[in-house]
Structures are given as structure tokens and as C-alpha cells.
Design a protein that fits this description.
The complex is a heterodimer of chains A (370) and B (303).
Chain A lengths: L23 H11 L1 H34 L11 H12 L3 H30 L2 H4 L6 H31 L1 H6 L1 H4 L4 H4 L5 H20 L2 H21 L1 H4 L5 E3 L10 E6 L10 E8 L8 H16 L1 H5 L3 H8 L3 E7 L4 H28 L4
Antiparallel strand pairs in A: 1-4, 2-3, 3-4
Helix pairs in contact in A: 1-6, 2-3, 2-4, 2-6, 4-6, 4-10, 4-11, 6-10, 6-16, 10-11, 10-16, 13-15
Chain B lengths: L1 E12 L2 E12 L3 E6 L5 H8 L7 E6 L3 E2 L3 H6 E4 L11 H11 L5 H10 L13 H13 L5 E5 L7 H18 L2 E6 L2 H5 L4 E6 L2 E7 H6 L1 E7 L3 H5 L3 E8 L2 E7 L11 E4 L2 H10 L5 E2 L12 E2 L1
Parallel strand pairs in B: 3-8, 3-9, 6-7, 7-8, 15-16
Antiparallel strand pairs in B: 1-2, 1-4, 4-5, 9-10, 11-13, 11-14, 12-13
Helix pairs in contact in B: 4-5, 5-6
Classes of the chains: A alpha+beta (370), B alpha/beta (303).
Chain lengths: 370, 303
């Protein structure tokens, strides 16, 4: 074997004017080659979830069709035996909860299996010594790679959000608003807007963690714990988040008097139509909030009024009794018109956190001493 | 122009100095051998020069004052890292595509011609190439960037003798045709002697000796004579290393000009191997060239 040098090697080393850099388009082409496995992971997850949604929707379609054929509506869901029967069959269909959970896990999968290995694998295998010494520069390389992955995951996540919230969930929303309401925690977090927002956060948070951990498997595990923890915590405390900017009312009455966190979609004429009931409490004489046994005493009395013959005929009986004894029932609710405002606000906060993660990863990569 | 310049350069990893007080200037047009024992700081110095490591203190520039790791420097400096890390899951052809798109001035024809001459198939996954082929591929990718400075970190470490010869031949050929400057590190001095004309010797995170190899060899001799006169003779020269074997003593000494040696003492030319070993055995000794001489210890001298 001999070593020869191509004739082109003797050509002079012409340099373009300083400042001319490798184009983004060329960098995207490399990202498509280099991160093929990650892109396949995204598409496989997407296809699996779409198939699951189609199968899930197919399972409820027959019940939904018979429900509509019987003339059942949301206003009279269980007045007729056939409506009640169909509604019960709906309740037995097991696909709803697993599907919502699967969609909520989509961001976690992207963060753990696409984001976490992005920098960690380069560090672990040592290929960062090749990549970061090329003409492109490590910061541009990181940003372009994240951008192309974001460009792929965003439409995928939007599509999943649309499929779940706009198509799959529709029969549930018609038959049982308590389950199918977009205010419900699982659905609030999986709208066409929230899905890409959380997926992007998960992607960049995974990358951020990977840049610190520098070991692929450890980065995946850490990302699963941290991103999973974040998603779980936000889900658990969503009722508190949704209390922000809620409207308080003592003029409207609920047919029951829940105290503390309610977090239930208004339905069947209970509460303003399309709203989310957030929190309820009783106020006694002097404006103090009632607690403990005092609440139970007042509530028992008012509910007793509803159940009595005279109370059942007078819709204002409870309200009048409360006013007579200087009590008031208050509750907060998010009107239907607040839904997209809250979606936007929560989404923007998540995107700001995602931007901070990108900033942190960039700084880490710039000053890395691996 | 200096291809690498550093001033007061230091790199600390969690409180431990991997590189300390490193001030040097490497002129262009040389093949520079960076030599030192394991853990001497060679890789850290090279990583600073290519921008992979940000110095804790001091600064390092390349190619006449460009900040190491800056966009301009990245365009003009090519680096082949230890163990030639490449993307093992993609083919050689895909790797070329990656390199073409990551560099503004990548000469794909040059790389393909070099790989063809080495019988490296373009459609083979990199992970299935031999160690020698991977090293050659790394070198081909670096040379096809048409750099002004080529930095090689222990490129021969895991290669068999034939592959070592081929890699060094490729480097020499590129230097001859392109006129680029090369810095490469190794702890195997015998490999460097044939190709390098400039030496940087590092020990314990510090630069111990810098200069043209011919100059360094001309200014050191091995002096042998009777042990009972050793003390007197040692006062006449700068002794880098001394060894006693019974009635015979051997010094490695540094001389600044043609010198007459004491009667009964024999001066012999020193090999690069011996010179490097002598300095490595005596970390307190140093020899810095020209205006960059640094007063570090008693045995230091300006050449």
C-alpha cells in the first residue's frame, strides 16, 4: 500500500472572506445523517400513538353513534335508559386513561431518548473532539441540531394534540363532560399547543442534563427522573395554577357545596357553562371563612333544604337561608373564555424555561473541559 | 509568524493543575514534536491550542494571534484527536459528507483520493475499519480541510509499525506539498526523530525544553570521565543529568559554545532519545529557546 496525494492537494489554500460561515442548510443536512436514529425514534413514537388513538376511537365509535341515534344530548345524558346504558358502556372502555397517559409520556420519551443522548453521547464516545474542532463551531452545531430536532418534534406533537383533543376526545366531551373536558388535567396538558411546548422543554432539558452528566445511559435515566418529576408535579399542582386569575362568585349557586379544591368541569347546569370550578368555601357572619365543624353544620343544613319537599320546589331556598343567617357560599371558577389565555400563559412560562435550558447547555458546551 | 503562542497558560481540573505557567512560541513551517511522559500535559496543551479547553489562566493564540477556538481559528486549524474518535455508526462516505458540510473549505476530492490510495472503502461503516484505517481516515479528513496548522494528538499510539509508517508518510507528504505547520504529540521519541525538526518537551504540566532539535542536540553532549574528578567537572558545566557507575561518571551537560573539555573526559554527541530521557529524569532542569527563556530554576539556561 502506498500513500499518494491527489493533484488537487497542491492547489493553493484559498480562503473565503472572514465571516463567511457554513450555511444552516448544510448543517441541517448533517443533522439528518447524524441523528437518524433520534428522528426514527420520534416517528416510531408518533406512529404508535396515532395507531393507538385510531384503535381507541374505533372502540367508542359504535357506542357514540348509538348515543346520538337515540337523540341523547349533553343536556339530557341519562334521562333515558338508552342514554344511561350507552354512557355506562363508555365508562367501561379502557382506552381513555392509557391513551392520555401515553400522550403525556410523549415529551418524556423525546427528552430521554432524543435530548439526553445529544451531547452526552458525543462526550462519552469522545467524538466531541472531532465535532467541536470543525469549522462550524460547537455553539452553532448545538443550536442547529436542536433546531432541526425541534422542527421535527413540533409538528408531530401538534398533530398528536389535535388528534387527541379535537378528534379522539370528542365523544367523551359530548357524553360526559367531566371526563372529556379540556380542563381536565390530562387533557389540559395535551392540547395541540401544550404538547409541542412540553415536548420542546423535555427535549432541551434532556440535552441540558446530558451535557452535565456526560454519560448516555445515566443521562437518559436522569432525564426520565427529572422530566417525569416535572410533568408529575405540574399535573399534581395544576389546580393551583388554574386558580390564578379565577373568578370568585357568591351569586351563583352550586347544587352541592364542595369545600377546598374542586377542580371539576362545570356540567349539567352546575356552574357557568364550559367553566372549570376551582375552589369553594363558606363565609360566616363578619366575613370570616368557616372551617371544620362549622362548615359541615351549614352544608348539612343547606343540602337538607334541597332534599326537603319545600326546598326542592324553591330553587332559592338555600340561598335565602344562607343570607338570612349571614352565611355565603363562595367558589372560584375559570370561565370558558379563560381557557386559551391560561394555555398561552402556562405555555409561555414553559418556553421561557426551555430557552433557559438552551442557554445553560450552550454555556456548558462552550466552557466544557471534558 | 508563530503558529502557536501561549503566555502564562494554565489549566486546572478541580484544583489540580494539568498545565501550568506555559509560555512558548512555536514558529511556522515546522514539524513540532510535543514530547513528555504520561500525564505531562501534552493533550491539555493541544486541546487549548485547538479550542477544546478554555484556559484557567493565561491565553493561547494560533496562526499569528488568532484566539484559539475562535471561528477563524477553527477554519484554519485541523485536529486529529487521540484514538481518532469518529462516528462509528455511519459509513466513510457519510463521514465525508459530514465533514464537507461542517467546513467551509473541505476538499472532498482530496479526501477521496487519499482514501482510495489507502484502499479504504467508502461504503464501509467506520466502526468496521481497522485502527490504522480509522487513523488514516481521521488524517484524511483533517488534511482535506486544507489547514494552515495540523495538530495531531498521539496519532500513532494504537497503530502497528506499518500503519505508523504510513500515517507519518502521509503527514510528511502533506507538509511537503502544502507547506503547513504540524504539531504532534507522542511519548515515543524514536518515532519523532525522523520527521520532527522542532521539539517541545513537557513534564509535570510544565514546558521543560523548547527549540529546534538540531540546536538542542548541538548544545548538549554526553561527558564521561573518572568519578573522582566528577565534582570539579560538574562545576564547569550546566549538568542536566549525572550518572555514576563505579569509577566512571557520565554527565549530560549543556554547552553554549564550542568548549574544551578536561583531560581524561570524553565528550560524545547525544541522541534525541538520550536528551529527552535526561530531561525527563530531571524535571527541575529546563532549556527554553531564544527570547522566551524563563527563569524557572537553577539549571535553566538560554540557548
Amino acid at each position: 500500500m502506498t500513500t499518494t496525494v491527489a493533484s488537487s492537494s497542491v492547489a493553493s489554500r484559498d480562503r473565503s472572506p472572514s465571516g463567511q460561515r457554513v450555511s444552516w442548510l448544510r448543517l441541517m443536512r448533517v443533522a439528518l445523517i447524524q441523528h437518524r436514529a433520534a428522528l426514527i425514534t420520534i416517528l416510531v413514537a408518533f406512529v404508535v400513538l396515532v395507531i393507538a388513538l385510531i384503535i381507541g376511537r374505533d372502540a367508542v365509535s359504535a357506542s357514540y353513534a348509538s348515543y346520538l341515534a337515540a337523540g341523547c344530548t349533553l343536556a339530557h345524558p341519562i334521562d333515558f335508559a338508552v342514554c344511561a346504558d350507552t354512557a355506562n358502556k363508555f365508562a367501561d372502555i379502557p382506552s381513555f386513561t392509557p391513551l392520555v397517559i401515553a400522550l403525556r409520556l410523549f415529551p418524556l420519551i423525546i427528552g430521554a431518548f432524543v435530548g439526553a443522548p445529544l451531547v452526552a453521547r458525543e462526550m462519552e464516545s469522545g467524538t466531541y473532539r472531532f465535532a467541536w474542532t470543525q469549522g462550524v463551531g460547537r455553539t452553532r452545531l448545538l443550536l442547529v441540531t436542536l433546531a432541526i430536532l425541534a422542527l421535527v418534534v413540533t409538528p408531530v406533537a401538534v398533530a398528536l394534540g389535535f388528534l387527541l383533543g379535537g378528534w379522539y376526545i370528542h365523544p367523551y366531551a359530548v357524553i360526559n363532560i367531566g371526563v372529556g373536558s379540556h380542563w381536565q388535567s390530562g387533557l389540559f396538558m395535551t392540547t395541540w399547543w401544550m404538547m409541542p411546548v412540553w415536548t420542546l422543554l423535555s427535549l432541551v432539558l434532556g440535552t441540558f442534563i446530558g451535557a452535565f452528566v456526560r454519560r448516555t445511559v445515566a443521562a437518559i435515566a436522569t432525564t426520565m427522573v427529572i422530566v417525569g418529576g416535572v410533568l408529575l408535579t405540574v399535573g399534581m399542582y395544576l389546580s393551583r395554577i388554574l386558580d390564578i386569575g379565577a373568578v370568585a362568585s357568591s351569586r351563583l349557586m352550586l347544587s352541592y357545596f364542595p369545600i377546598g379544591t374542586i377542580y371539576t368541569a362545570a356540567s349539567g347546569g352546575v356552574g357557568p357553562s364550559g367553566s372549570l370550578l376551582v375552589r369553594g368555601w363558606f363565609v360566616g357572619p363578619g366575613g370570616r371563612v368557616l372551617g371544620g365543624r362549622a362548615v359541615n353544620r351549614v352544608r348539612d343544613h343547606v343540602i337538607g333544604l334541597y332534599q326537603s319537599k319545600s326546598g326542592a320546589n324553591d330553587p332559592n331556598a338555600a340561598k335565602n337561608w344562607l343570607a338570612l343567617h349571614h352565611y355565603a357560599y363562595w367558589f372560584t371558577y375559570q370561565p370558558a373564555s379563560h381557557f386559551w389565555i391560561l394555555q398561552t400563559a402556562v405555555g409561555l412560562v414553559v418556553l421561557v424555561v426551555a430557552a433557559l435550558c438552551v442557554l445553560g447547555t450552550t454555556r456548558n458546551v462552550q466552557h466544557s473541559r471534558a | 509568524m508563530n503558529v502557536v503562542e501561549s503566555f502564562g497558560l494554565g489549566v486546572s481540573y478541580r484544583g489540580t493543575w494539568a498545565l501550568q505557567d506555559c509560555t512558548l512560541a512555536v514558529p511556522e513551517g515546522h514539524i513540532v514534536a510535543l514530547v513528555g511522559s504520561n500525564g505531562a500535559g501534552k493533550t491539555t496543551l493541544l486541546h487549548c491550542a485547538v479550542g477544546l479547553v478554555t484556559p484557567t489562566v493565561g491565553e493561547v493564540t494560533v496562526l499569528g494571534g488568532i484566539g484559539a477556538g475562535s471561528p477563524d481559528a477553527l477554519e484554519r486549524v485541523a485536529f486529529v484527536a487521540q484514538e481518532a474518535p469518529l462516528y462509528r455508526h455511519i459509513t466513510v462516505r457519510a463521514m465525508l459528507t459530514v465533514a464537507v458540510n461542517w467546513n467551509q473549505h473541505f476538499d472532498r476530492n482530496l479526501a477521496e483520493a487519499r482514501l482510495a490510495s489507502l484502499d479504504i472503502p467508502l461504503d464501509r461503516r467506520i466502526g468496521r475499519l481497522s485502527g490504522g484505517q480509522q487513523a488514516q481516515l481521521s488524517l484524511a479528513l483533517a488534511l482535506a480541510r486544507r489547514p494552515d496548522l495540523l495538530v495531531l494528538d498521539e496519532p500513532l499510539a494504537r497503530l502497528d509499525p506499518l500503519a505508523r509508517h504510513e500515517v507519518m508518510a502521509a503527514v510528511m507528504s502533506a507538509v511537503a506539498e502544502e507547506g503547513l505547520s504540524v504539531i504532534f504529540s507522542s511519548h515515543v521519541v524514536s518515532e519523532l526523530e525522523r520527521v520532527a525538526d522542532y521539539l517541545i518537551l513537557m513534564s509535570h504540566g510544565r514546558v521543560q525544553m523548547v527549540g529546534m532539535i538540531d540546536d538542542l542536540l548541538a548544545k548538549h553532549v554526553v561527558l564521561s570521565g573518572p568519578t573522582d574528578e566528577a565534582e570539579r567537572v560538574a562545576e564547569l558545566f550546566v549538568v542536566v543529568e549525572s550518572r555514576h557507575a563505579g569509577r566512571q561518571t557520565q554527565f549530560v551537560v549543556r554547552i553554549n559554545a564550542p568548549t574544551e573539555f578536561p583531560n581524561g573526559w570524553v565528550a560524545e554527541n547525544i541522541s534525541l532519545d538520550e536528551l529527552v530521557l535526561a530531561y525527563l529524569r530531571e524535571p527541575s532542569a529546563s532549556a527554553m529557546s531564544g527570547p522566551l527563556a524563563v527563569s524557572a530554576n537553577s539549571a535553566e539556561v538560554t540557548l
